[in-house]
Amino acid sequence: MSIVASDPILKVEHLSMKFGGLVAVGDLSFEARRGEITALIGPNGAGKTTVFNCITGFYKPSEGMITLKRRDGTAYLLERLPDFQIPAKAKVARTFQNIRLFSGMTVLENLLVAQHNKLMLASGFTVLGLFGAPAYRRASAESRDLAAHWLEKADLIDRADDPAGDLPYGAQRRLEIARAMCTGPELLCLDEPAAGLNPKESLALNTLLNDIKDNTGTSILLIEHDMSVVMQISDHVVVLEYGRKISDGDPSFVKSDPKVIAAYLGIDDQEVETVLVEVGDEHVIEQFDGTPDPEQGPSPSSSMMAGPVSDTIEHADHSEGLVKVAPGASKADRVKSAESAKAPSAKAKPAAKAKPAVEPAKVPRAPKAKSEAAADAAVAQPAAPKPARSRAKPTDQAPVSLMSAPAVKPKATVKAKPAETPAAKASAKPVAKAAVPAPKPAAAKATVPAKSPAAAKPARPKPAPASAATAAPDDLTLIKGIGPVNARKLGEHGITTFAQIAAWKKADIVAAEAYLEFDGRIAREDWVGQARRFARGAKPAKAGKTGGRG
Ligand SMILES: Nc1ncnc2c1ncn2[C@@H]1O[C@H](COP(=O)(O)OP(=O)(O)OP(=O)(O)O)[C@@H](O)[C@H]1O
């Protein structure tokens, strides 16, 4: 069978994934075309990673079909393929939100390990390799050549013999992609490859991804919050909100689609109704019992399908095919809440309606008060006043696009997101919720003015450290390891002075590592010690400072 370039390599049809009562993905259909870069975007908690996990076999979808068609015409139903066969047979490779390299192994070894299967096959799964069997020697040489090829492409050839853990963050991201490419994938799934990168590193990433697209024919499916990456390199963008697709098209279409702007930036209560009509969304209702289903974690076996979701995903109207989504999620609920708030009884508005402030740098929107926020509000802030709507409002005068609009808080700083594995989930969630303070209202003033100052307030009061309010901010970039990006992220969490960092305890470091997306780096670079020295008045040796990645 002949496959043409524009054929879909991946077809997702009516995909649904539920976790207990939470419908993380509901009735989602889209296609990724062969040889193209398809971006999957959406605000925090929209269900992007869940889609990836279904595609790569980490989750068994509750409903739906995922078809991967290889160049030779062979089609695989990924939801039925055992997960370990997805890379080998369907040729799907992926990277994760959090870097997962073998940090103690060298850069080159990381790429050789990725080709382990090939080498095992060549050794006949025996000790032939040790005796230098010709087939093994050949395979070994090929593996090294392939590794060297991808090290060149990823601009890492000079670091081939360094431990992977010693690489700067951006280089580690590129190494992960190089490692995935060493498996010869036809579909490369990248989960937030630009997260935490500085502009220079983002540029290097764009170059690498374009190179892969142009020269290997590997199709790329990308989850990304960094709109500069998405809009520059994607051929096709699919936008999710609350597990449903709200837009699908080329980047220029998507970035000016009112539904996408509404999802990212928010709109006035009155405008909500208009947009809902436009979106055809006014019948969306919500339901959510907030209890994740532990049995829906990464599956040990992929041949079985999870139970039907018809009990939680329901077609509200069969003619329209709308699905129920999580409570607090839909704009319809916001309309209802706005109406009830106007009523004399003045019912308290659910905290889930709180929308975050926006900031002018990277991506999507701030802490979307979905399930966690609703739970937090119930437990921690029962008497919290109705939060001001904080999404910036597109003006009538100026057309707004995602590129011109102020992007919103990256999720990692605010959201207690379930981790990829149950173990990670168990440890990550409490840390993120308990220790990471809510983000600061960011500079909503950028290009799209907020309606009023109140409109830029965050959903929840931010527990900024007391000293942050009084002390003048220090130049945190003097600390080796803190660049402008990390300084900004720290600022968003109320960390602006050396004294604050100097006073960090273990829990504070864990919390900071969570929102900076580091893995032991703060201790390794001894930020606390450095901050103590600066707080004591040590002279900054700015000229000698290296290593601030962001
Ligand atoms: N294993 C799980 N158990 C319970 N709920 C989960 C699980 N995985 C994801 N969820 C929930 O599903 C929803 C979608 O999460 P998902 O991580 O897919 O969103 P996302 O769009 O990737 O978000 P982000 O951009 O923050 O990474 C969220 O409400 C999340 O809490």
Q: In CATH terms, what is the fold-level topology of one domain? A: DNA polymerase, domain 1
Please state roughly what percent of the residues sit in beta strands, choosing from under 5%, 5-15%, 15-25%, 25-35%, 35-45% or over 45%.
Answer: 5-15%
| Low-pLDDT windows of residues | 281-339, 342-469, 542-550
Mean pLDDT: 68
Bound molecules: adenosine-5'-triphosphate
> What about the largest sheet?
6 strands, mixed
Instruction: Going across the biggest sheet, name each strand in turn.
Output: 6-7-8-3-9-10
Instruction: State the shape.
Output: globular
CATH architecture of one domain: Orthogonal Bundle
Question: Would you count the extended β strands for me?
Answer: 10
C-alpha Rg (nearest Å):
24 Å
Helix content: 25-40%
Number of DSSP helical runs: 20
Distance between the amino and carboxyl termini: 48 Å
CATH class annotation of one domain: Mainly Alpha
Coarse structural class:
alpha/beta
> What is the N-to-C order of secondary-structure elements (H for helix, E for strand)?
EEEHEEHEHHHHEHEHEEHHHHHHHHHHHH
Protein name: Branched-chain amino acid transport system ATP-binding protein
GO molecular function: ATP binding; ATP hydrolysis activity; L-isoleucine transmembrane transporter activity; L-phenylalanine transmembrane transporter activity; L-valine transmembrane transporter activity
Keywords: Amino-acid transport, ATP-binding, Nucleotide-binding, Transport
Family: Belongs to the ABC transporter superfamily.
